[in-house]
Design goal:
This protein has one domain. Helix content is 74%, strand content 0%. The chain contains four helices and no strands. α1 runs antiparallel to α2 and α1 packs parallel to α4. It has 85 residues and is mainly alpha-helical. The chain is elongated.
């Protein structure tokens, strides 16, 4: 990976993390395994895929972007649980 790709990669990972924080927050309010719960978990994935391919990153970056998405979901859920308790 060349040094000029560091900023686009940082943006992609920040996008994956940042978009999933509010989705994880909202996911905490829905019943587990309901349609809404499923939708809130997977809603950001097509946008992350589109952004990743448009920025020229290969499939090898999927685990890292998926990890950021999961961490964003967990952070959002934790924020919601702390707020309501």
């Amino acid at each position: 990976m060349s040094p000029e790709q560091y900023a686009p990669l940082a943006f992609l990972l920040a996008f994956a993390l940042g978009v999933n924080i509010p989705l994880g927050y909202l996911r905490e309010t829905s019943r587990k395994f309901s349609f809404t719960w499923f939708l809130l978990i997977h809603l950001s994935i097509p946008f992350i895929i589109i952004l990743r391919t448009r920025m020229g990153f290969s499939w090898r970056w999927i685990p890292l972007t998926l990890g950021c998405a999961v961490v964003g979901q967990l952070i959002g859920g934790r924020i919601r649980r702390r707020k309501t308790s």
